[in-house]
Amino acid sequence: MLKKELQAAVEKGTMLPLMEEFYTIQGEGYHTGTAAYFIRVGGCDVGCHWCDVKESWNAELHPPTEIEKIVENAKRESNVIVITGGEPLTWDMGPLTAQLKENNLKVHMETSGAYPLSGTWDWITLSPKKTKLPTQTVYDSAHELKVIIFNKHDFIFAEEQAALVNKDAILFLQPEWSKKEEMTPLIVDYVMQNPKWRVSLQTHKYLNIP
């Protein structure tokens, strides 16, 4: 394909900048400990300074891939698919999720919510960032709210976000990995005092898996 045609296909969501795909154990949030196939798409301008996949930010580093190929790989591995990034909602997720659903797969997403919701989802994990706040469509549709705690002020941010998300969203606080020794005890205390929240840990890092 010519570059212009590739760009048009990416904009339509029929091709996506694919960074990596892998089958592993979900390490965070409500579905911790369950097997899932992860699809990581490139492209993100939210710019979290503690992001552990900064190589995902530049979409041009990751080859545009036909969604048919992505779906074919996914359905061989698991019936639960997690779309992550980067920021998946940078792109139109409608075509990819439609094909995944046609294959009777459960489709989850991990997103900052920075762009309007697209696609059809069985589970949406919203992890909001101060640098680019979520759109209302994602607040309204999120199944879980997962706020990363890097410093004490993030507890205030967490409560602000909890007030904006829909009433059915499950609320999680998760220590940023480099601050886990410092912040985990504070999160435990906070959840004990505010039991509407739950603790989330990056268990995949403790297990030394992707």
UniProtKB/TrEMBL annotation:
Domain Radical SAM core, residue spans: 31-210
Amino acids binding [4Fe-4S] cluster: C44, C48, C51
Keyword Ion transport: no
Record-level Gene Ontology MF annotations: 4 iron, 4 sulfur cluster binding; carbon-nitrogen lyase activity; magnesium ion binding; S-adenosyl-L-methionine binding
Cofactors: [4Fe-4S] cluster; Mg(2+); S-adenosyl-L-methionine
Record-stated family: Belongs to the radical SAM superfamily. 7-carboxy-7-deazaguanine synthase family.
Entry-linked HAMAP family: QueE
Annotated protein name in UniProt: 7-carboxy-7-deazaguanine synthase
Taxonomic placement: Bacteria, Pseudomonadati, Bacteroidota, Flavobacteriia, Flavobacteriales
